[in-house]
Structure formats: structure tokens, C-alpha cells
Specification:
Layout: E1 3-10, H1 17-30, E2 35-42, H2 49-59, E3 66-72, H3 78-87, E4 93-96, H4 108-116, E5 121-126, H5 133-149, E6 162-165, H6 166-172, H7 182-189, E7 193-198, H8 212-225, H9 229-258, H10 266-298, E8 306-310
Helix pairs in contact: 5-8, 6-7, 9-10
Length: 322
């Protein structure tokens, strides 16, 4: 019998995570041909999410439908939480979803059906999204970035609700550097990725935990973790600016010879200096971002630090902790 692992990053979900887990239990009773487990990762939430996870894990410490809890020592972000959950998963299929009830756990059979048909990864696609305008803007920018930097197919929609096969998970968790980017890891492992349409709900409570700072950090991960295209773009842009500066210099000399009375403009000179100086600083900053990430990775900065495990030993062991 195949096993499904549900991985749920949790942040400010004290009031909602119980409903999500209950929905999973209800759905899996219908899908009696599968065993399952639920892995809950507390990303150092400031509310009592950890208390809610302890209660949920205490209700099902073993057997089919077992619940595992992991709590971080500080906030490491959603993608680090996903990586921790993936490493503690044991299922033939792994399903990742949100903790706020917006991703419909009761439609997981649609994702699993696509895996059974032969897909390696399946992303939920929403016909009508119920995110805020800010979050939708972030999703559009993220989609553009993944298409340009990671060569994501244009017609592929990626979301936080997805399912993957075991071999994809095994390849993803080999990545141990400090800046995980889950979409990039999936696309690095396979191109046999499809979409399936599901409903998208309103948030049960609260607001999205994604701030502009977190979204920018996520985009930088995508820019620099799995692609050298930003460096190539910087090289091409630098070459264009150098050529434009050279041609403008030739034009200025010719203009002076044709009409000696034309004054040499201070404003145009300053504009050129500011423009090319800004381009140089932009390119140096981009190179510095790569160098800084290499430096941090060489110093073995961890993806996450686990403070507490509940019903979960170290990955690859059967040891448990109360």
C-alpha cells in the first residue's frame, strides 16, 4: 500500500491548523487505498502554534495517520520549513500545502491521480485566487522570474499546493545550502510537471505572512540559487552601456568638428556619469550577492535549526521524542 506524506509549514496558524489536519483525516478515510502521515513544521511562530502542534501530535503519535511535529529555534522561512518536512517524510508521494485552509486538502485526490497517471510533480492551479492584491502581484512577479531564470514552461502554474514523487523528494533534500528555493529544486529534478485545477478559498483568519521583505528574499533566492542568468544579463547590459558610451563619445567629437561653436554640455556629461556609475554599482552588487552566498555556504550556515521534535526522530531513524 502506497503512503502519502503531507508537509505543512506553520506560522501564525494556532486557530487554523487543526481544521486543515481534520480535513486531511476526513479525506484520507475516503482514500482507503493509501496510508498517510502528517508532518507539521512550526517556523518559530510568535503565537501558540507550537502548543496546537503538540496537541495534534499527541492525538495520533503512531500508526496510519501519524502526526509528526518539528519546531524551529527561530524563523527560517517557508521554504526552509518545507525542506525540514521533506527530510522527515517517508511517503511514496509527498503533498505540500498551506496551514491557513486556503489550499483545499479535500481535493488532494486530484493531485494524486495525476501522479498515478505518470507525472513526477503536480501543482494545483486556481481559476479564481482569493489572495490579496499584494500577494497576487508577488505571485505574478515570481512567475515571471521562474520563467526567465529557471526556464519554467510558460503554461505551467506553480503554487504552494503541490505533490511530488519520492525520487523527486530524494533529489531535493540533497540540497543542503543555506538558501533553498523549492520551485527551483523541483524543476532541477524533473520537467515532467503538470497542473490540476482546484478551488481556492478565502483565508479563515488573519493575513498572509508574506511581507515585501520576505518576497524580495524569496526572489533573490530564485535569482541566485539556481541560475547564472543574472550574471549573463549583467554582462550583456554592461557591454551595451560600454558600446553606447563609445558611440556617444564619437558623436560628440564629430559634432564638435562640424560645429565648433556647440558648447560641451555639463548636464549631459553628468547624466552619462550617473547612468554608467549606477550600472557598474548594480553589476558589482549582483556579483557581491553571489560571492556572499558562496561565503555563507562555505561556512556551513544551516538551512534551519530544530529546537524540538514530536513523534519524529532524526531523518532516516525511528527514534522519537516526547
Amino acid at each position: 500500500m502506497k503512503k502519502i506524506s503531507f508537509v505543512i509549514p506553520c506560522y501564525r496558524s494556532e486557530e487554523t491548523i487543526g481544521h486543515v489536519v481534520a480535513e486531511i483525516d476526513d479525506k484520507m478515510r475516503e482514500m482507503s487505498g493509501y496510508e498517510y502521515e502528517v508532518i507539521l513544521v512550526n517556523d518559530c511562530s510568535p503565537d501558540n502554534t507550537l502548543g496546537a502542534l503538540r496537541k495534534l501530535c499527541g492525538e495520533r503519535p503512531s500508526g496510519n495517520g501519524m502526526r509528526k511535529g518539528i519546531s524551529f529555534a527561530r524563523n527560517f522561512g517557508q521554504h526552509a520549513a518545507l525542506m525540514a518536512g521533506l527530510r522527515h517524510s517517508e511517503g511514496d508521494y509527498v503533498v505540500c500545502l498551506d496551514d491557513d485552509g486556503q489550499t483545499p486538502a479535500n481535493e488532494v485526490d486530484r493531485l494524486i491521480a495525476k501522479l498515478e497517471e505518470g507525472a513526477d510533480a503536480v501543482y494545483a492551479k486556481y481559476e479564481h485566487k482569493h489572495h490579496s492584491a499584494f500577494r497576487n502581484l508577488g505571485s505574478r512577479v515570481n512567475d515571471l522570474m521562474t520563467r526567465v531564470m529557471l526556464e519554467k514552461p510558460k503554461d505551467l502554474f506553480v503554487s504552494s499546493y503541490f505533490a511530488v514523487r519520492r525520487f523527486v523528494v530524494d533529489d531535493m533534500i540533497r540540497y543542503e545550502n543555506s538558501y533553498p528555493y523549492v520551485i527551483g529544486l523541483v524543476l532541477r529534478s524533473t520537467r515532467n510537471v503538470v497542473n490540476v485545477v482546484v478551488d481556492h478559498r478565502d483565508r479563515e483568519q488573519g493575513n498572509s505572512g508574506y511581507t515585501m521583505k520576505k518576497l524580495l528574499g524569496l526572489w533573490f533566492n530564485g535569482f541566485t540559487a539556481f541560475s547564472v542568468k543574472p550574471l549573463r544579463i549583467a554582462t550583456a547590459l554592461g557591454s551595451f552601456c560600454a558600446m553606447a558610451g563609445f558611440l556617444y563619445g564619437i558623436y560628440t567629437i564629430i559634432k564638435k568638428f562640424v560645429n565648433p561653436d556647440v558648447p560641451m554640455g555639463f548636464s549631459s556629461m553628468m547624466a552619462a556619469i550617473v547612468f554608467f556609475g549606477g550600472m557598474i554599482m548594480l553589476m558589482l552588487g549582483m556579483i557581491g550577492e553571489y560571492v556572499g552566498r558562496v561565503y555563507i555556504s562555505l561556512n556551513n550556515s544551516p538551512q534551519y535549526v530544530i529546537r524540538e521534535r514530536i513523534n519524529a526522530g532524526e531523518p532516516g531513524t525511528t527514534e522519537t521524542e516526547p
